[in-house]
Amino acid sequence: MNIDYRNILIKNQHTFHPVVEFDANKERFFLFDFTSNNRELTADIIEDAEKFREYIESKLKTAGCRLGIGGYAEHRTVYSRSGVFDADKDEEEPRRLHLATDIWGKAGTPVFAPLGGMVHSVAYNDQFGDYGATVVLLHQLEGCSFYTLYGHMSLRDIRHLTSGQYVVRGAEIAHFGEPHENGHWPPHLHFQVILDIGMYAGDYPGVCKYSEKEQYLKNCPDPDLILQMNRYILN
To answer: Which long-range contacts link 196-203 to residues 24+ away (Cβ below 8 Å)?
Structure first.
């Protein structure tokens, strides 16, 4: 049976709690571009966690925005900074296509459950460029199950969450982590929707090979179906 998750999510959008709180009447999101079109992002910036963080903070400050956003289905150059995304063999294709929406802001920014569910799994994916502290929630909506993944969180958050623990809509579940605990990235939330997580626990590919784009984007629909933030991007 083919389940129309897109329509189910759209139909229930009015019930979702903001994943990151913002004032829709006053605030706008700065749209980040991490593709090869962004000539400002030099290798020198990308490969240095502190310079990368300074770049993010500078762009937000200049734009007058507290938060930045972007990344879904974006073919990114920034993953060259980590061997996590490299191919197993030199002649094979590396992973570069992002499967989630990133929300960029200050470390410690609270993250909330958009709808009720259960903690599926937590993990500390502690490699340079990986998720760092990670939370995965399991949800049911109109009898259909799916998952949301929260990457680059604070270590203190996953110490208080256990598999099988119930989470209510709007519960504060995590916070943007510092670089030393979030995979050495500037503070942000990697928010991903996953329909079939398979045998993964506390993890799921957030980046795929471009040649595998179709199958992964089908299994990881646009997070803005839940976030509803793209309408507030700074023009």
So the answer is: 197/120, 197/136, 197/147, 200/121, 200/136, 201/120, 201/121, 201/123, 201/136, 201/163, 202/121, 202/122, 202/123, 202/124, 202/125, 202/134, 202/136, 203/123, 203/125, 203/131, 203/134, 203/136
